[in-house]
Amino acid sequence: PRGWVQITTTSSIKDASGSEIMAVKYIYKVLADGTIRMDIRVVPSLKMKRVPSLPRVGFRISLDPSLHHIQYFGRGPGENYPDRKSSAKIGLWSSSPSEFGYSYIVPSENGNR
Questions:
Q1: Which end of the chain is more exposed for a tag (fewer CB within 10 A), N or C?
Q2: How far apart are CA 97 and CA 65, in angstroms?
C-alpha cells in the first residue's frame, strides 16, 4: 500500500514470578498527511486467572509542543470512567491539549476518554 507506513511492536506484562500474563501489540500507522493511528491489542494468557486484579495497560507519548489539535474516537466529549460511561456518547471528538486535562488538587487519573 502507498501513502502510509506501519510500525508494529510487541511487549508483555508479567506477574511477580516473571510469567507472562498478557501479550501486548502496539500498531502505529503513519499516514501521508502526518496522521498517526494507533491500535493497542492485549491478549491475556491462561495464567491471568491467577492474577487478583486486572493490570493496567497504557502508553506514554511525548509530542511536539506546537501540536494543538487532538482528535479521537471513543467516549466523550469530557472525561468518563467505568462507573459513569453511559453518560458519554461514543463518537469522533476534537479538542485541544489545554482542554484535554484538568489540574486536580490531588493528583489522580486524568483525561480518560
A1: N
A2: 9
